[in-house]
Structure formats: C-alpha cells, structure tokens
Write a structure and sequence with these properties.
CATH architecture: 3-Layer(aba) Sandwich
CATH class: Alpha Beta
Strand content: 5-15%
Structural class: alpha/beta
Order of helices and strands: HEEEHEHEHEHHHHHEHEHHH
Strand order of the largest sheet: 1-2-4-3-5-6-7-8
Oligomer: single chain
Number of strands: 8
Radius of gyration: 20 Å
Number of domains: 1
CATH superfamily: Alpha/Beta hydrolase fold, catalytic domain
Shape: globular
Helix content: 40-55%
CATH topology: Rossmann fold
C-alpha cells in the first residue's frame, strides 16, 4: 500500500528538482540587465537609460504585461528612443528580477505605488507612462493614484476593464494556496518550455513574431516557480480589481493615446480600448485592422509618434494609423 505514495513522492521530487535546475539554467542564459533598487522592504529591478544632449521627449516609463519582463519593452523601444528621453524599463514586482514584496503587490494599485517609489529613488519626478496589456491596468491605476507624476499615458493592447468569463485554468490552479506552489514547482516549467514557441507566436498572431524574440526578451523567465505563481495571482485578481478601479478612470486628465488591433485574441479590445476612450476625456483611440496583441512591436513607429504627440508635438495619428493598416494588409 505504501508503494503508490512512495512512487508519487519520487516523481514529485524529481519534477521539482528538474524545475529548480532548469530555472537556474534559464537565469544563467538570461542574466539581469537592470539594476536593483531598494524601495522599502523589497527591491525593484529596472533598466534606466539617460537622455542624450538632443533629447526632445520627457522621461518615459515602460510597464510590461503578464508573463513578461522588462526585456520585452526594451526590445520594442530602446533602439529608436535611446537618447531622445530618459527611459526606465521596469520589471514589475515578482517578475524578471524584481522582488515580489507583500500582499500589496498582488494588485495593480500596489504595483503602481511600487513604481512611484522607484521613480523617486531614480530621480524621476514626472513621466509618460507606457503600459502594454496587463501593464496598462497598472498605468491607469498610476494615473488615478499618482497624477502629479503622470505626464501622459500610452496604452498598448490594454487590459483595464472587467470582462465576461474567466482566465485560463492553469492561472487559477497556480494562484491557490498549497496546490498552486506545488504545481508551479513541478509542472509549469517543463510544460511551459514545450509550449513557448507556439505560445509566443500566438500572442503576435496574425502578425509575424520576430525571429529573435524569444532569445532577446527571455519569456522563459516567467516559468520560474515563484514568478509563475506571482504572474498567476496577478492575472486571476485582475478582473475583480478592474471592476472596482475602472469607474475612477474618468479622473484621469493626462494626455492619453490608446493603440489596439482588431485581431487581438488575448484581450477584448472592444471592452478595454473602447472603455478607456469612453472613460478618459480627450483620449485618442487608434484601432488598426490586422493587428494582434503586440502593437508595441507591430506598430512601433505609430507608438513612437503617439509618444511625440503626448509630449506636445503635432502628429496626425489617425493618418499614420491608416498608413500602418495598409502596410500590414499588404504583408498579410
């Protein structure tokens, strides 16, 4: 009668050991490119790039989405923006190389507060806040709760409003006590590695994922047990949080641009992007046909033009969006 439990225990131990060793291997292959800063009780990681002598934009802070880390937005924006502004690419609490902190970091308002403290530590008084996907919920919360630090907002494929239905089963499983940590330490990493290529392609679909995306952005970091569980808690708690916070978006007065595609299979753009346009007075929505969940890459030039307009430069974003739409249609 003891054989079955013993075999099960051996399998679990072997899976946990594999995950531990593989997590260390992932970290070795993708070392920290940022700097850790103590923000009070925990450390946050960020890559900060100074403005050049001919800078023409205010400071910009980039907040990555679920299952990501700062490398994702670095890959999208660093090359074209470095020197034009002070740039701060943030690992959200519990992601990349940032420490998770306490229960306050389980929700977007707590993560927004962490970013506000990081700004103070890094000497940034006010910035344009860029949020992709889940990061947009943090950007919106930041603008509501820290308006004095918000120079403008750029939302990219945002997830900001309550939506019908739930989330994937593995998020729910990983987020619960006891079973969640066990799942994260045994199953999620090997399963995630198997699905990594197809999963990242689906996030970009129907657009083409850059060939070097996995190598340069290190999405495998999210498969480490502690980060996988933090990510799951983020995702599971977002819907209820958005239902509470969305009514306050009308308080936002900062210049705002929203960029979304009509082919996003990750978030319902008609709920989130249209909701932001409705709730934030004066905001501008750029809805581009043929674009999925990664406008930060697929519509990178449009996103940079949006940053310029937020900073006060004259830009016809609707015309640029239609031009991008024609280019994408030709590529598809």
């Amino acid at each position: 009668m003891l054989i079955v439990p013993l075999v099960l225990a051996v399998i679990i131990a072997a899976a946990a050991l594999f995950s531990f060793l593989k997590a260390r291997e992932i970290e070795a292959a993708n070392p920290n490119i940022g700097t850790l800063t103590d923000i009070g009780g925990r450390r946050m990681n960020a890559l900060q790039l100074g403005a050049g002598p001919n800078a023409d934009l205010p400071p910009i802070i980039f907040i990555h989405g679920a299952s990501g880390n700062l490398r994702d937005q670095v890959g999208a924006f660093r090359e074209k923006l470095e020197g034009r502004a002070e740039l701060l690419f943030v690992d959200r609490p519990g992601h990349g190389y940032s420490e998770r902190g306490g229960p306050e970091d389980d929700l977007p308002d707590g993560q927004a507060a962490a970013i506000a403290r990081l700004m103070e530590k890094r000497g940034i008084d006010k910035a344009i806040i860029v949020g992709h996907s889940f990061g947009a919920a943090i950007a919106a919360s930041f603008a509501v709760l820290h308006p004095e630090k918000t120079a403008g907002l750029l939302f990219l494929a945002p997830a900001t409003h309550p939506w019908p239905g739930g989330v994937a089963w593995y998020y729910n499983l990983a987020a619960v006590p006891v079973i969640g940590p066990l799942f994260a330490h045994t199953v999620s990493l090997p399963a995630g590695l198997t699905l990594m290529d197809a999963g990242t392609r689906s996030v970009f679909a129907p657009n083409r994922r850059p060939d070097d995306y996995i190598a340069t952005t290190a999405p495998a970091l999210v498969l480490r047990p502690s980060e996988f569980r933090a990510n799951a808690i983020d995702v599971v708690r977002l819907n209820a949080y958005a239902a509470r916070m969305a009514p306050r978006y009308k308080e936002i007065k900062a210049p705002t641009v929203i960029i979304t595609g009509d082919s996003d299979d990750v978030v319902l753009e008609e709920i989130h992007s249209r909701g932001l346009q409705r709730d934030i007075e004066g905001s501008e929505l750029l809805w581009v046909k043929g674009v999925g969940h990664k406008p930060d890459y697929v519509l990178n030039d449009l996103a940079i033009a949006a940053l310029e307009k937020i900073a006060g430069m004259p830009r016809d974003l609707q015309a640029l969006a239609r031009a991008a739409e024609a280019r994408i249609a030709a590529a598809l």
